[in-house]
Amino acid sequence: MSMFHAENVATESERAPIPMSDIDMALTSQLVVAWAGETGEERGLGWWRSDLASEYGGEDLFRRLLPGTWRWAVLQGARQAARRMDGELRRQDHDPDRIISLFSLGFELDERIEERFQDLKRSGRAPHDLLPGLEIISDGWHRDHFWDWVIGHGEAEAAASPVGRRLKGNPPIALDQRVRKLVAAFAPATKTYPLPHYRRAS
What we know:
The chain is α+β, with helices and mostly antiparallel strands. The protein has helices at residues 3-14, 20-36, 58-65, 70-90, 107-122, 127-130, 143-151, 175-184; strands at residues 99-101, 158-160, 165-167, 196-199. It has 8 helices and 4 strands, in the order H-H-H-H-E-H-H-H-E-E-H-E. Helix 2 (20-36) crosses helix 4 and helix 3 packs across helix 4 (70-90).
């Protein structure tokens, strides 16, 4: 066995599989934050200029255009708006590829989460049936409910940086713990998207 092949085997064996429950948690967190960050009829947090989840905004349009998957389409659109804002802020950093955020967890993880979203969307079932954590958004926008959800993820020590709110220390290896810290760091509330993030070691 060549040294190159041996190194590859070691790398593969050390790579722990990611539980689907962790992928679902990350996706759920992205969708909840994306939904909460909208600006529109229900106001939300006003972090991005989209109004896709309100009854007479994007929801009405998607109901008519995509009767089978409109619920997923609404969440997908809000998530795209959130990812766009997240990306714009990351690109203001001198080394944006080193920033880990809720919407940029690393190439492989981002791919896995996107694949999972598409699989769920094709299932023919409603988002709340497959991702129970989305229950928080089922009753419409309630600011206190959202911040209770954020606080329920625990505490995160962070400090202001030029591009957002940087968490101290290294990002947890486990995806669910990484997501918990990133979500927790959305508190305290801000008028603009605070970009909670870790900086990956070079």
